[in-house]
Amino acid sequence: MPEHDETRRAFLVGTAVGAAGATLIPKALAQDSQQPHQHSAAPPSGAPQTAGHAMNAGHGAFLSDDDAVTMTALTERLMPGAPGKPGATDAGVVNYIDLALAGAYADEQDFYRRALVQLDAHCAKTYGKPFHRLTAAQQDETIAALEQGKAPEFVWPTAQAFFNTLRTHTMEGMFADPIYGGNKDFAGWRLIGFPGAQPLYTPEDMVSTQAFSREPMIGLQSRAKKS
C-alpha cells in the first residue's frame, strides 16, 4: 500500500478506535426523522442544475449507476483497502450511503446530486475526464482540493462541505453497525478490534487494553433475533 494510503487509513482507523462507542449508531439515524439535518436549506441562486443526476433506475435505493461508480471511487480513496485490510468497498460503504440517502438522510439527496454534478465539472476542467477514470494520484489531488476549498466549480454545496459530509458518511458506513447497510461482514469492526453488541462484559473486559475476543462478533440484528 502506498504511504499516502497508509497514512489516511491510520488516521481514520485511529479516529474510529477513539470514538467506537459513539459511532456505532449514526447520529442522524438515531434522531427523529422529522428533525431537519444540516443540509436541508435550499441552494442559492446560480447553483448547478441536477437533471443529469436525478434519481433513476440504477444502483439501488437512491444512487444511479453512474453516481454509484463515482461514490465507490471517492469512498475507496478516503478509506483505501489493502491485502488483509478492508477498505470502503469491502465494507459496502456505498450501499450504506445509498440506503441512508433513501431514508434517514433523504433531505441530503439534493446536496449529493449537486455535489456530484460539480465534481464532474471540476474533474472535466482539470483533467478532462470523470473522477472514477483518474489515476489514484489525480483522485487524491481532487480530494485534497475539496478538503481545502480549492475547487471553484463548487457553489452549493461548497467543496469543503461536500468533503466533510462524505468523510463522515464514509466513516459511518465503515464502522457503524451492519444493520444500517455498511460494515459488511464486520469489516470495519475487525479492522479496529471492536467486538460489537456483546450481551455482557466482565470487569476485567472493561479495563483490558486488548481486543475483546472471547465471544463471536455480533451486531444489533443478531441481538434482535434472540430477543
Explain this structure.
The protein is mainly alpha-helical and about 230 residues long. It has 2 domains: about 55-195, no CATH class; about 195-225, no CATH class. The chain has 12 helices and no strands. The longest helix has 19 residues, at about 110-125. The chain starts with a helix and ends with a helix.
List the helices and strands and how they pair.
Blueprint: H1 3-18, H2 20-23, H3 27-30, H4 65-78, H5 88-91, H6 93-101, H7 109-127, H8 136-148, H9 159-175, H10 187-192, H11 203-207, H12 220-226
Features:
227 residues, mainly alpha, 12 helices, elongated
Give a concise summary:
The protein is mostly helical and 227 residues long. Helices cover 52% and strands 0% of the residues.
The rounded Rg comes to: 18 Å
- Report the span from N to C terminus: 43 Å
Classify the secondary structure makeup into a structural class.
Answer: mainly alpha
Q: How much of the sequence is in beta strands?
A: under 5%
**Tell me, what's the shape?**
elongated
Q: Which percent bin holds the helix content?
A: 40-55%
Number of separate strands:
0
* Oligomeric state of the chains in view: single chain
| Tally of helical runs | 12
Query: Which regions have little confidence, pLDDT < 50, spanning 5+ residues?
Result: 17-23, 32-36, 51-58
Mean pLDDT across residues: 81
The arrangement of helices and strands along the chain is HHHHHHHHHHHH
* Whole-number total of structural domains: 2
Major sheet size, sense and barrel closure: none
